[in-house]
Design goal:
The chain has about 325 residues and is an alpha/beta fold. The chain has helices at about 35, 45-65, 85-100, 110-115, 160-170, 180-185, 210-225, 225-260, 275-285, 295-300, 305-315; strands at about 1-5, 10-20, 25-30, 75-80, 105-110, 130-135, 140-145, 150-155, 265, 290. It binds 5'-O-[(R)-(carboxyoxy)(hydroxy)phosphoryl]adenosine and zinc ion (ZN).
Length: about 325
């Protein structure tokens, strides 16, 4: 079965064709990052308008790259939520139109479930495993018992980790989004230079809090003399990154130990962070747990993960109604 996946929940317009739920025949992602950079964050109306411009060319490119036409597509999977409603509706409307016009079965998919299972595009992982979703919009730990069977173990009570990275990067004058830049600068810095707080570490089980950490770092930066801050940027980036990574790693490994699982899967944009990758692998290994990271292209928002889940649900007989609506908040 060849499934066309469509994703437009935030600031990436994406389409992909996946065969048999595993084989990625094409994977196109058009990012709107530069359209939002001017505003220092994602502007919902700009996102919707940019999706409207990009969605048809992106779908055509995905079909073209796969060497297929719409007649070859056996199913359509589209992100139904969570996300920005106006953005979601663009992907949803196009998916419904194609499904209706061509009489192709279609199904709405939860974006978080897509991240949680994106690893299967590249490798097999035994169930159950612990999944950490860490992005600009989400920071959650799930126990993944099977496809379609998830238990939320904890989540952020305020900011997402990526959001905290982006806000501190902004205070440092690094531009938007700043997570990847912080990662790069941190490599030249001393991660022990400044001891930033570790929100909720040792408390509140597997819930996170990054807001206080972000505020502490922002206040620290603002207190420094303007002439000195340039020379301190690398140390601040390294120290802040270390604080975030410390909390993410310790809570996730503790969740895996408590759940008695053999593997941890990390996904979402912040899963690209080099320090997170290294520390998670190191600490999990000490606990006898395997760590799996999808490649960066499948960690960040993409439609291949949506198509792969679509394959599973369509094969299970699930179909969505053409009256299906977008869902802004939707826990798996
Ligand atoms: O999953 P994603 O592409 O979009 C959503 O938020 O859904 O994640 C984007 C987030 C941004 O906050 C960005 O700064 C962060 O992921 N990010 C990183 C790195 N690369 C991307 N954060 C830390 N280190 C990185 N290398
Ligand atoms: Zn995402």
């Amino acid at each position: 079965m060849k499934v066309l996946g469509i994703e437009s929940s935030c600031d990436e317009t994406a389409a992909a064709v996946v065969e048999g739920g595993r084989k990625v025949l094409s994977n196109i992602v058009v990012s709107q990052v530069k359209d939002h950079a001017l505003f220092g964050g994602v502007v919902p109306e700009v996102a919707s308008r940019k999706h409207t411009e990009a969605i048809v060319p992106v779908i055509n490119a995905a079909l073209g790259d796969a060497g297929l036409g719409l007649d070859d597509i056996d199913g359509i999977a589209v992100t139904q939520g969570p996300g920005l409603v106006g953005a979601l509706l663009v992907g949803l409307s196009v998916a419904k139109s194609l499904a209706f016009a061509r009489n192709i079965p279609f199904v709405g998919i939860n974006h978080i479930e897509g991240h949680l299972t994106a690893i299967f595009l590249e490798e097999e992982v035994e169930f159950p495993y612990v999944g950490l979703i860490v992005s600009g919009g989400h920071t959650s730990i799930y126990l993944v018992k099977d496809l379609g069977d998830y238990q939320l173990l904890g989540k952020t009570i305020d900011d997402a980790a990526g959001e905290a990275f982006d806000k501190v990067a902004k205070v440092l004058g690094l531009g938007y989004p700043g997570g990847a830049l912080m990662d790069r600068l941190a490599k030249q810095g001393d991660c022990k230079a400044i001891r930033f707080p570790r929100g909720l570490l040792g408390k509140a089980k597997f819930n996170f809090s990054f807001s206080g950490m972000k505020t502490a770092a922002s206040q620290y930066i603002k207190k420094q003399h303007e002439d000195l801050i340039g020379g301190m940027t690398n140390d601040i980036a390294a120290s802040f990154q270390e604080a975030i990574v410390d909390v993410l790693v310790k809570k996730t490994v503790a969740a895996a130990e408590q759940s008695d699982v053999k593997s941890i899967v990390i996904s979402g944009g912040v899963a690209c962070n080099s320090r997170l990758r290294a520390r998670m692998a190191e600490i999990a290994k000490e606990a006898g747990i395997k760590t799996c990271f999808p490649s960066p292209v499948f960690c960040t928002d993409n439609a291949a993960m949506i198509a792969a889940l679509g394959d599973y649900y369509l094969k299970s007989g699930k179909r969505s109604d053409l009256a299906m609506n977008a869902v802004a908040r939707w826990e798996v």
